[in-house]
From TrEMBL:
Gene behind the chain: purA
Pathway the protein takes part in: Purine metabolism; AMP biosynthesis via de novo pathway; AMP from IMP: step 1/2
Keyword Transferase listed: no
Enzyme class name: ligase
Protein name, per record: Adenylosuccinate synthetase
TM segment ranges: none
Native source organism of the sequence: Catenuloplanes niger
SMART domains, A to Z: Adenylsucc_synt (SM00788)
Annotated localization: Cytoplasm
Amino acid sequence: MPAIVLLGAQWGDEGKGKVTDLLGERVDYVVRYSGGNNAGHTVITPDGQKYALHLMPSGALSPNAIIVIGNGVVVDPKILLQEIDGLNERGVDVSRLRISGDAHLIMPHHRALDRVVERYLGSSRIGTTGRGIGPAYGDKVARMGIRVQDLLDPGILRKKLELALREKNQILFKVYNRKAMDVDAVVEEYLGYAERLKQYIAETRTILWDALDRGENVLLEGAQATMLDMDHGTYPFVTSSNPTAGGACVGAGIPPTAITKVIAVSKAYTTRVGSGPFPTELFDEFGQHLRKIGHEYGTTTGRERRCGWFDAVVARYASRLNGVTDLVVTKLDVLSGLEKVPICVGYEIDGERVDDMPMTQTDFHHAKPVYEELDGWWEDISQARTEAELPKNARRYIARIEELCNTRVSVVGVGPGRDENVVRHQLI
């Protein structure tokens, strides 16, 4: 049963969409298993077309793959329909989309609470996108969530919404001095979405089980990344779901024994959006250089990404946590033209050298990177397609990452395009 997990090894934005698109023609199903429209995948097709996807699995651009939004995703139906319409307008067939009836819906009160609570926190804010993802997952855990399947039953939809707004309207109005939500207006809005989405709603677990039984390739696509995992990331500066390999089983409804390969994607340096600790963050001209040359601005928010050197402690942690079999290193071309390229090989905490992730939030916040400097390269590597075509120092850099992470680097990205890669080992 060949299930493959594709996930991020850092704090997101590593280029997972490009890898999904690269594999899309060789897999039969692409499944999004976590997150919501707080994630963004940018895909550039061979003819130069650029697509920014948020809820739709990146496999939407593959001509044959069935694309699935799993039960672990929280769905904003308005945003999803906007993406469907946008893809249809550009000639992309989305009739292959299937949405789990057990996925939870993002409701208007989730978005309102997300924005107002974040503002209320002030300097202690998490740095959320304000799209309602956290509150939607909170209601899911509190067993008062509204699911995609509820769109098919107007009576259940209204009953669940009335129950939720009984509490949420009190909070919005009495605590934050915001306007209460009107049940009738929300029901009418969401039943409108239901009319258009019902053709896509399905029992996706059975679909995936049957596909695996037939020996078809199922690609499980994570949003965000390892260090944003609710349980294993830099809590509380994390997302509200589990984008790690273990989350793939829960968020798609497949058994762990079905997973045969775990592909992790990492940039050749490190970026992060939002608040939270970031040991290798650069505040100098090198940070500006990485941001400018790497076009480091959020796909979903447009926010400037924080930039830093490659953190091998984080990458090694992600490799061990997820059981990574193949590492994809993207954006190596961004490092061209630098005299020296540092790699963080450990941390110094209270005067002591640490080679693994610190246990406590406090220690990680105070961790100072221990760098190993490698010689840089000046050549333009965007045309390289084989390892031999990479400069010697670029090859040494990749070899050192491989050694530090104890995981083979199978693909190296040398540009944003689908074909701008050096393939060292075939992923499939």
